């Protein structure tokens, strides 16, 4: 951590240590920098401070529960996500029909799809659809329903059945938590149906997740590790997951 970043985080920690919260704008003004700089400090360095819903809190502050913010997630571990998506792209073949999950992890993958001559992308994520809609080589299948702004995704009771009617070669799934005992989870319950349907239907199932998600459990469980063929991650300790699941065919691909 550079000295200025350390000084800013130390100052903010002193303000927050007695409890309460601090708006991101107020934190930026206090430190004399931009809001983006504060976001970068928090997303690139270990810190007891969390940014939840636009406000800074101490991670150990009583009553604090995680709040999903897509903008914050896009900034978090961005370079790692780029490497993960480069590795995930190596599994894509010409003519594939891909299920691409919602969230921020898989967004860097979309810029790499233009090198293929023909692909089909199935998604329930508006940000994914907007990115691939301009690619002339990609046929887009956007699954609709009620729109959830927090994750830029849609949900409906019939979405799972719609996915199961499609011939999906590869399902690229993201997650907010991966735990060896309690499985793979996310923040939003409306994502469970489409994720599970894609996992059940696809010929190959890839979990793309950065190391910060290991050992984390989120509210909405949707799969076990055994449900995936490949885990793409950046943690060199990840092959140890196989030792916990000796009967699994799960393989680890490091970015």
UniProtKB/TrEMBL annotation:
It holds the Pfam family HTH_DeoR. SMART domains: DeoRC, HTH_DEOR. Keywords: DNA-binding, Transcription, Transcription regulation. Residues 5-57 form the HTH deoR-type domain. GO terms for molecular function: DNA binding; DNA-binding transcription factor activity. This is DeoR family transcriptional regulator. The lineage of its organism: Bacteria, Pseudomonadati, Pseudomonadota, Gammaproteobacteria, Oceanospirillales.
